[in-house]
Amino acid sequence: MIAPFFCLMLKILSRSAIFFTLVLLGFSLPAAAGEILDQIKSDGLLRCGVQAGQEGLAVKDDSGNWRGFEIDLCRSWSAALFGTPDQVSFVEVGPETGLKALNDGRIDVLALHEDALFGRRDVSFAGSAFVNSLGLMVRRADAFSNALELDGGSVCFSGDDEAKGRIEAFASQNRMTLNVRETGSIEEGVLQLREGSCTALMAGRLALAGVRSREENGAALYEILPDLLSKRLMGPVTLSGDRAWQNVVRWGVFAMLVAEEKQVSSESLASMASSTEDPAIRRLLGFEGDFGTQLGLDVLWAYRIVEAVGNYGEVYDRHFGPGRPTELERGPNALWIDGGLMRAPPFQ
Question: Which of 29, 115, 287, 288 lies 20 to 30 Å from 326, alpha-carbon distance?
């Protein structure tokens, strides 16, 4: 009888030791189902992590007003939760600190992060909201139309081993000769591009659009080629465990995608709401079914998202559309029916 008792005690002590070791090492336990969503509702405020300072994604102007793709994502979730896009606090995080901010409880959701979270059990990728990719920027005066025309030239990049591997593989596959050179920073790369010592500058397309927007007459001087050398899915990230909150975040993005697919925009919303007989649109806007109730929201949650920020295409064009400083062709961010990668399941 004594031996089994000691075995049981050893198991209990071992589990306790593991638990306290994890706590001391900074690991967090998954959130209980619905816990985060309930707390957000109780607080009446959504804390949204954004990567401030990246033009097109999240920028605060001199008056303290925020703008950017990430900002509209945060505002859309606020509209779904509270009926207004304004019950959100934007918390500035960096590329390396956003996940820690989630684990520390300083934010409820990280607006955009790459999906490379393999092996992470503490956080969950809530689906793709943007597809970034490695791209190439050239001088407009050189009149290149695609990357194949760079044969014999030089490509500059900064601090990204993946980028080097991608462009070398591209050159090999297409039997091209390219001189691939590393620069100290993307800003230095732009300088060398301007001076002609680089034929093209390679970086993530978001980074290229951002650095071009900071250059005087950047849009007139530089062009981002349509070639995509890689695809990097980006989307919101939440703590693991609270499926209710993850579903609200995920379906908030889906609502904007379905709205664009069904041609429901912030301008057409009122008229379509009063006249449409399309069951898919009626379910989206809350006039049929109880999908909002299943998410823990009211029936008009998606209606309010479109009313507040528009459909996905409107949000994209607001920050990356024609004439914007950070203009980027939709490419993989187009809807699947237009040859892109963005799609959403039907509202059932």
Answer: 115
d(Cα 328, Cα 320) in Å, to the nearest integer?
5
Give exposure, 201-235, as e/b (b: 16+ Cβ within 10 Å). bbbbbbbbbbbbbebeebbebbbbbebbbbebbbb
Instruction: Report the C-alpha gap between 304 and 248 in whole angstroms.
Output: 14
pLDDT at residue number 16: 35
Q: Which helix (H) or strand (E) holds 110?
A: strand 109-114
**By C-alpha distance, which of 109, 141, 115, 140 is closest to 127?**
115
How far is CA 263 from each of CA 252, 308, 322, rounded to the nearest angstrom?
17, 16, 19
**Neighbour-count burial for 3-40, b at 16+ CB within 10 Å, e otherwise:** eeeeeeeeeeeeeeeeeeeeeeeeebeebeeeebbeeb
Distance CA 210, CA 40 (A): 33
For 251-300, the pLDDT digits (tens) are: 999 999 999 999 999 999 999 999 999 999 999 999 999 999 999 999 99
Kindly state the helix (H) or strand (E) to which residue 66 belongs, with its residue range: strand 66-67
Strand-pairing partners, residue 58, are 54
Residue 236 near residue 126, CB atoms below 8 Å:
yes
Residue 197 has, within 13 A of its CA and on its CB side, a CA count of 11
| Under 8 Å between Cβ of 49 and 89 | no
Task: Tell whether 160 is covered by a domain.
Answer: yes
pTM, two decimal places: 0.87
State the CB neighbour count (10 A cutoff) for residue 150.
24
Q: How far apart are CA 229 and CA 146, in angstroms?
A: 12
Average pLDDT estimate for 93-113: 93
Q: Count how many domains the chain has.
A: 2
CATH code for the domain in which residue 246 is found: 3.40.190.10
Last residue of a domain, one of 185, 204, 224: 224
Q: Which residues contact 199 (CB under 8 A, 6 or more apart)?
A: 138, 142, 150, 153, 154, 155
The domain boundary residue, chosen from 192, 224, 256:
224
3-state secondary structure of 321: coil
**Cα–Cα distance for residue pair 75/87, rounded to 1 Å:** 8
